Structures are given as structure tokens and as C-alpha cells.
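Late entry, written up from scratch paper. The run itself happened at the end of the previous shift, but nothing got recorded in the book at the time, so transcribing now.
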Amino acid sequence: MYDVAVVGCGIVGAAAAYELSRYRCKVLVLEAKNDVANVTTKANSAILHAGYDPLPGTLMAELNVRGVALARELCKKLNVEREEIGSLVLAFGEEDDRHLEMLYRQGLANGVPELELLTADEARALEPNISEAVTGALYAPSAAIVSPWEYALALAETAVVNGCDLHLSAPVTGIDRLENGYRLHTPKGDFEARYIVNAAGLYCDKVHEMVGGHGFTVRGVRGEYYIMDKSQGGLVDHVIFQCPNQKGKGVLVAPTVHGNLIVGPSADPVAEVEDVANTAIGLEEVRTAAARSVPSINYRESIRNFSGVRCYTEREDFIIEESQQAPGFINLAGIRSPGLSAAPAIAERAVELLRGCGLATEAKERFTDTRTRTVFRHLSAKEKAALIRENPLYGRVICRCETVTEGEIVEALHRPIVPTSIDAIKRRCNAGMGRCQGGFCGPRVHEIIARELGVPKEQVLMDEEGSWLLCGQTKTGKGGDLQ
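Output as recorded:
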């Protein structure tokens, strides 16, 4: 029997697994998808928020500020791309100016460091391409940008290195109560655990209901985005927000850690929590709103649109608590923005709750809290030459747009959490993230995956289960059946 089963391996589940892996307890992680970070974590604004937006006294406020402070050290130790570029919330008139003053006071109450109210001229001195209509701004130097899927992967991978058992493609289909814990049913078999951490994201209410739980219901809100080519990446140097409204933090414009520009999101309720369609109406809403902040964005340089769904419940705050209906069942539910920012602090709180339930948390004598990986494009010319002499695969560029080498792809395929799809490689190495969006490198990545994993090319997926790229005819049956 496991001590703790973590259900879900997005950023929150990965952070919980990482934190639990510090202790001498047996930890299981069950993820429904065939890769970690493959739902909301891979489809968001990639921002570590400073923490002025949540109301003082809420879990969001406390854990946001604590989480971004933890992320600074975590990303450094685990080799995750993160840049502390700061953010500006723009005002467009007297009403917005008053709102900025309120956000400033909230930020001070929440412990956000170095907040500053700027005049319009001071804001434009920092960001010359913002609108002439701007009347002022709130400056938060501690805001950062990050690679969200790399962040979650690094946490999950380090948890596995430290002894956690991770099962992918293992959705929890039912949970039975036992005298001393729970039995979780999955297509990969049944697993028993004394305690459960529910980090199932958009399905957290459904997992809670499996143990007779109730008290919250998930509703999805879809946000649509533009990713712009690197030609637009230098248009702004900070994360540019507008004053929040009833739909959330509003449409932002920001650089990405990979040198692109991200614009979005919209905010539209959806009936299905995995409805990530892009729509003409939603994308027009994003363009119209973004033009108010940064009028000069050239949408002819768009290289990708995507959508993500945020997890809302009836409560205005995170739900981080032991279930009232199921002892030892910890809900980490309703985790929307600033969930990415707060994740490591949410994990700390989860461990505190588990201790209160009786989990023994004796620290391990040996805990691996560092992680290395090769990012060829970040190396100096001397370092590149030395690496190629050692392994010629690093001299073969597979993705020209992002300068990703065969050596990096092969390295990713032999790490603790094995990627089995082309998009899983993209999330790990950035191959396919560039201007051509995998049009050039995709077939070669496909070949490398098949070769390194020793599987037929027909079994290599584009992304999730069922997303095959190749099919053929079997040698059996009349006329053959398409596979």
C-alpha cells in the first residue's frame, strides 16, 4: 500500500509529488493523459504573477506570493527557463487610476515586494510601444515568465528520481474506501493508498464525488491565445496587463521565455471542460482588447493559436482542505490563476494537511533537488564544439527554427519520464515551437522517437492517445484492415 496517491500531474500534482518526495513515504502519482502537464498547465499565459490581484486574507493571496518566491529557487535548481521581467498594469482614465491604487494597497497587504505606481510618462519610458491613451501603470518587478510545461515536468521528473511511482494513461475511474485507506481503480490496475491528494484539475469535482464527496462543482472557462513569431518578441519587455474585470485579469501581451510574444486570453464559459476549440469570435475579442494596450502588434506574424480551459468553482478562492466526507482525502481544487504561480506553496500546504491527518513526514537523508539538461542554443561556441566532439548527435540540427539538435531529442527520450509523442518532445526540447510549427522537423522527430524507443512508426503519436500520424494495411483479413 502506498502512503499517498496523488491524482493528476499538472503543475499542482507535480508540485505535490515533488514536495512529498522529500520524505520517507511511498508516493504514487496517477495521470489520466499520456504525458504530464498536458491539459491546463500546457495552455495558459505562462506568467508567475507578483501577487497584488488576489484579495488580502485569501489562500490565493498568501500562496501566490509564497509560490513565486519558491519558484525563483526551484527553477534555478531544476534548470527551468524563467525570467523575472516584471509586469505593468495599465490604466486608461480616472476609474482605472483608482483601481490601480486599490491593487497597489492590496499588493502591499499581500507582501508583494517593490510595487510602484507610475505616471503615464514613466510607464512609456519603460514600454515605448504601449498606447498613447495610457494614464498610468502599476509596476511589479517580481512578476516573471516561465515555461509552464517544463516547470511541471521538472518537478515531476525530480519526484520520480526521488522514488515516486508515476503512471501515465491511468485515469482514476473509481475509488473504494478501505478500513485504512482507499483503493483506486484505473485501466493500469488497482492501487491502494492511505491518503489521497486530489489534484485532478478540471475533473477535481468528479474525483471527489468518487469518495462520496460534494461541496463544489467545476465549470470551465476557455481562454484563447495568439503566439507570435520572434519578429514580434521584442515589442514589449514586461508583462502588459489591463485593469482586471469581471472576466479575470483580462487580455495580456507578454514576451515568452523562448523569445516569442503571447497575446490573450479571452474568457468564455464552455459546457465541456476540455473544449479547447479556437473561434473567430474569441480571437477577435483578443485582438480588439490587446490593441488597447499595444496597438502595433502585427497579427500577420502569428504562428499559432491555442486555447486552455480554466477551472472555476462556486468559491472565489482556492479549495485546499481535507474532504468533509472522506477522511485523509485532500482536495487541491478550483486552482485557476494564480495557480501556476502558487503551485509550490499549494504543495507545502497539502503536506501540512496530510501531517494533520496522520502522515509521518520524516525527511530523507538523501534528496536530489537539482536537475541538469542540455539546451544547445544556450551554450557558448566553445561549449558547443566540445559537446559535438563528445557526441556528434549534438552537431545535427533537427529543428532549424529553434536550433534543437538530435542530441537533445535523444537525451529527452532517455530521461526519467519518457516522452512518447512528437508534442511531448516539443514540450521538452522546443522542437516544433518555431515559425514553421514542426513542418520541417516533425517527420525527423517522428523517426528519432521510433528508433530510440524501438517501436514501429505507426505507434508514434502526435500528442494524446489516438493521435496517430501513420496507418497501413495488415497482412491478415480479406483486403486488409486499416490500422
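The mean pLDDT is 96.
(Scratch paper discarded after transcription.)
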